[in-house]
Amino acid sequence: MTKPNDLVTPVDVVIVGAGIVGLAHAARAVDRGLTVAVIERDEHAVGASVRNFGHCCITGQSGELYDLAMNGRRHWLDYATKAGFTAAETGALVVARTDIEMQVLRELGRSREPGQITLLPSDDVVSHLQARGGQPDPRIIGGAFLRDDLRVDPRTTVHRLAAWLAGQGVTFHWKTSALGFADGAVHTSRGAVTGDHVIVCVGHDLDYLFPEAAADHRIQRCTLQMSRAMPEAGLDLTPAVLTGTSMLRYGAFASMPSADALQADADPLLQQIGANVMFTQQPDGSLLLGDSHSYQHTAAPFLAESIAERLNQEISALLGIELAVAERWQGVYASSDAGPLFVEEVQRGVTAVSVTSGVGMTVSFGLAERTLESMYPSELYLNQSVLVRNP
Ligand SMILES: Cc1cc2nc3c(=O)[nH]c(=O)nc-3n(C[C@H](O)[C@H](O)[C@H](O)COP(=O)(O)OP(=O)(O)OC[C@H]3O[C@@H](n4cnc5c(N)ncnc54)[C@H](O)[C@@H]3O)c2cc1C
After folding, report:
1. For residue range 315-324, what is the model confidence (pLDDT) as tens digits?
2. Å from CA of 53 to ligand 1 middle
3. Which of 132, 166, 290, 379 counts the most CB atoms within 10 A of its CB?
4. Pocket lining: 355 vs ligand 1, CB cutoff 6 Å
5. What is the pLDDT of residue 243?
6. Residue 232's pLDDT is what?
7. Is 272 in contact with 86 (CB distance < 8 Å)?
């Protein structure tokens, strides 16, 4: 059997996991002029990074997550250009159907710099959601446009980013599982790979490699039901669309004074399934629809048809069109009530990085930059590599 170490010399950074978090770390490392190897157990990534909405929900974050999201925004746009994947400055649309929802939007708008959040009258919201022959929900009373959010394509991003990184000299070990770590070496199902720093980005599967650290951070698996539909009537929807249920799930909205009233006003059935009723339109015109949230240590594999139907009915009613579902799937991400991120040196020279709050697309590049900055400060590495690469 081929052993990776027979093929490669030791590298500066070994990364485990080729989802968005692992690849963002690889990208920021390569741009410091470092040598990088990525170990991925599958033939190509099929985890949370390809199963999500592709919404970089920057404006909806607060505190540390907001800073990471904002810092990562330019990297999303930069790597999209370099690697040829979609990251569009579409912004996001939040639909309000009650006075309390509108009040939360007003409060958040007042707390941000002018222009970042624009309150919209109902006509503007309806015209965004207008499909040919459709009749958007008559209960819409207004909404808000979130200028800084991005829309990306989750189905192509990690594949194109991996291909671009390979072209930059990153060594990929696909179909190779990391099994253990010792003295700078990652022991895999195909042999050892060594590096000065090891960064473990395995998302919700951290407990398989570091069960105690995962237990200390109370990491669980959050399972989500998603579907993809082709709108029957023509619909040209540029921004990601969020609703009142989304406001309960993102820190920026949830920390507003009227959020408690919003919670009290929420539909009990939607609350019961942990709904975040939202959708994005993908480059092929299809809509990614979701989602529900359920928390367990070991994820139950079954998809409840009643949940999928309820979510799709909500979105169908909002747009006022029929939605023909083409695919359904379950997504899983790491979740913790101990904090939104897990970043820890779990063993000497081995740092585990996991987003434990369901916003890994949004914060991945900002988080990667922060990790790499702590290991290889840019004044020493970034400038040097820029000089070497652009003499
Ligand atoms: C349905 C859904 C919707 C979401 N919507 C959004 C959204 O709109 N916006 C947003 O910001 N975030 C969203 N998220 C969250 C986001 O997708 C995740 O936070 C993010 O993708 C996590 O990235 P990751 O690289 O850590 O994990 P993953 O993408 O799961 O990648 C981890 C990789 O590690 C590999 N791996 C695991 N163990 C090993 C091992 N021992 N050896 C080698 N390889 C290993 C796996 O095969 C996998 O490829 C959503 C998540 C889901 C599930």
Report:
1. 999 999 999 9
2. 12
3. 290
4. yes
5. 98
6. 73
7. no
The 3-class SS string of the chain reads CCCHHHHCCCEEEEEECCCHHHHHHHHHHHCCCCCEEEECCCCCCCCHHHHCCCEECCCCCCHHHHHHHHHHHHHHHHHHHHHCCCEECCCEEEEECCHHHHHHHHHHHHHCCCCCEEEEEHHHHHHHHCCCCCCCCCCCCEEEEECCCEEECCCCHHHHHHHHHHHCCCEEECCCCEEEEECCEEEECCEEEEEEEEEECCHHHHHHHCHHHHHHCCEEEEEEEEEEEEECCCCCCCCEEECHHHHCCCHHHHCCCCHHHHHHHCCHHHHHCCCCCEEEECCCCCEEEECCCEEECCCCCCCCHHHHHHHHHHHHHHHCCCEEEEEEEEEEEEEECCCCEEEEEEECCEEEEEECECCHHHHHHHHHHHHHHHHCCHHHHHHHHHHHHCC
Structural domains of the chain, ranges and CATH numbers in brackets: 11-49+156-215+339-387 (3.50.50.60), 92-147+220-335 (3.30.9.10)
Tokens of 287: 């809509």
- C-alpha 21 to ligand 1 mean position (Å): 7
Which residue has tokens 């139907």?
Answer: 309
Task: State whether the beta carbon of 334 lies less than 6 angstroms from ligand 1.
Answer: no
What does the pLDDT read at residue 59? 98
How many angstroms is it from 299 CA to the middle of ligand 1? 14
> Ligand 1 test: best mutation among 15, 39, 41, most atoms within 8 Å of CB?
41
Q: Cβ(153) to ligand 1 under 6 A?
A: no
pLDDT attached to residue 8: 59
Report CA(248)–ligand 1 centroid distance (Å). 22
| Ligand 1 site, residue 48, Cβ cutoff 6 A | yes
pLDDT of residue 152: 97
Query: Is the beta carbon of 45 within 6 A of some atom in ligand 1?
Result: yes
For ligand 1, say whether the CB of 20 is within 6 Å of any of its atoms.
yes
Which pLDDT does position 56 carry in this prediction? 98
Tell me what the pLDDT averaged over the chain comes to.
Answer: 94
